[in-house]
Amino acid sequence: MPVVPYKNSGDSKKKQVAEMFDNISAKYDLLNHLLSFNIDKAWRNKSIRLLKPVTPKTILDVATGTADFAIAARKLKPQKIVGVDISSGMLEVGKKKVVKKGLQNLVELVQADSENLPFEERSFDAAICAFGVRNFENLEKGLEEIFRVLNDNGVCLVLEFSMPPKFPFKQLYNFYFKYILPKIGRVVSKDISAYSYLPDSVHAFPYGKQFMDVLEKAGFKETKQFPVTFGVATIYMATKLKS
To answer: How far is the C-alpha of 204 from the C-alpha of 87, rounded, in Å?
Structure first.
């Protein structure tokens, strides 16, 4: 059984995820930074630094949400950044941020299904995704789509939650994730289920070596992982080698 936001709903995970993010879009940025103690910004910045040697000219931000990662990617000085997301509510927030920063000629946001990307093969030099692959209905299909739209020698970078392996951080993290985070999320977002789904989906996600195996199954090579903040999150990099 897939982990879904609304357990009593008969809708697909994809539809539920879109509904959930529409519901919390107005408070998403506030909660994202509050609940991560702003560490998520440092994680994105490290991800961008890891991509710097690749010098991508075209970047796809998959499950862009409110466009934080797409906006951060401007530091790579690309010619074009395209962000896609299934949630219209998140994209509306993202579009306002892009305009506010004067990046509308660089960053384009498109509503689309990450598992059925509306782009031709070999359209991008790099694909990035922060806290999004965990929400795919079909993880392998989503990664195969990313692989399809990357140019030869293109790089996929994924930033995703993982589980700290060592005592005592593992125990503290689990307690915070299970008991504290959902309560704060429910109060601020007014969505009863969204911030219970978050820890459930993290526990169900195949992080670490397991996720690198899924990347390789999708066709990627040279997979690497970079745990951050004691393993609370992990940055993954993989390459679509020229065939």
So the answer is: 22
What is the rounded (10 degree) CA torsion for 192, 140, 156, 36?
20
| Residues 79-128 pLDDT 10s | 999 999 999 999 999 999 999 999 999 999 999 999 999 999 999 999 99
Integer Cα distance of 101 and 237 in angstroms: 28
Q: How confident is the model at residue 132 (pLDDT cuts 50, 70, 90)?
A: very high
**Residue 16's pLDDT band (boundaries 50, 70, 90)?**
very high
Q: What is the 3-state secondary structure (H, E, C) of 70-117?
A: HHHHHHHCCCEEEEEECCHHHHHHHHHHHHHCCCCCCEEEEECCCCCC
Name which of 107, 109, 139 is nearest 236 in CA terms. Answer: 139
Report which of 13, 154, 144 is spatially closest to residue 78, judged by C-alpha positions: 154
Q: Which fold has domain 13-240?
A: Rossmann fold (3.40.50)
242 pLDDT tier (thresholds 50, 70, 90) = confident
Q: Point out the least confidently predicted range of 25-29, 86-90, 108-112, 138-142.
A: 25-29
**Sign of CA pseudo-dihedral 70, 71, 76, 77:** positive
> Domain limits of the chain?
13-240
